[in-house]
Amino acid sequence: MEIYIPEKPLLQAASAMTFELNCAFATLRSIALERDIKNFVMSLIGLWLVSIIGTWFSFLSLLYICFVLIHTVPMLYEKYEDEIDPIAEKAMIEMKKHYQVFEAKVLSKIPH
Q1: Which chain regions cross the lipid bilayer (predicted)?
Q2: CB 75 within 8 A of CB 2
Q3: CA–CA separation, 37 vs 31, rounded Å?
Q4: What is the CA radius of gyration of the chain?
């Protein structure tokens, strides 16, 4: 029995992957050059949070926790979607308010 992989779908997948990688590299370059200050600050905060969380757990424990969360959170969301959505909407509104204050007090004073 011979295994055959068609060329066309493979080339389409490679093309799509190349496009996505180029977009990711462009975003990373933009963040690294501080052109988009919002993404730059968000990436700094995200990396800072990851470093703090990383000090609390060993890598294997963190990997196990992420694995469990990846497999349980979607199921719990589907089960309790009606209760979670209003709370998440309120949280997003509050986060946007805090970000607007942060942008007005801090980010607007940083020269571009």
Answers
A1: 45-70
A2: no
A3: 8
A4: 21
- State whether residue 83 is helix, strand or coil: helix
The tokens for 49 are 């949070």
Q: pLDDT band for position 41 (50/70/90)? A: confident
Phi, psi (degrees; rounded to nearest 5) at 102: -60, -40
Say which residue, 42 or 111, is predicted with more confidence. 42
- Looking from the CA of 75 toward its CB, the CA atoms found within 13 Å total 5
Q: What string of H, E and C letters represents the secondary structure of 10-65?
A: HHHHHHHHHHHHHHHHHHHHHHHCCCCHHHHHHHHHHHHHHHHHHHHCCHHHHHHH
- Residues 30 and 37: their CA atoms lie apart, in Å, by 9
Residue with tokens 């020269």: 111
- 1: which DSSP letter? -
Average pLDDT of the chain, as a whole number: 88
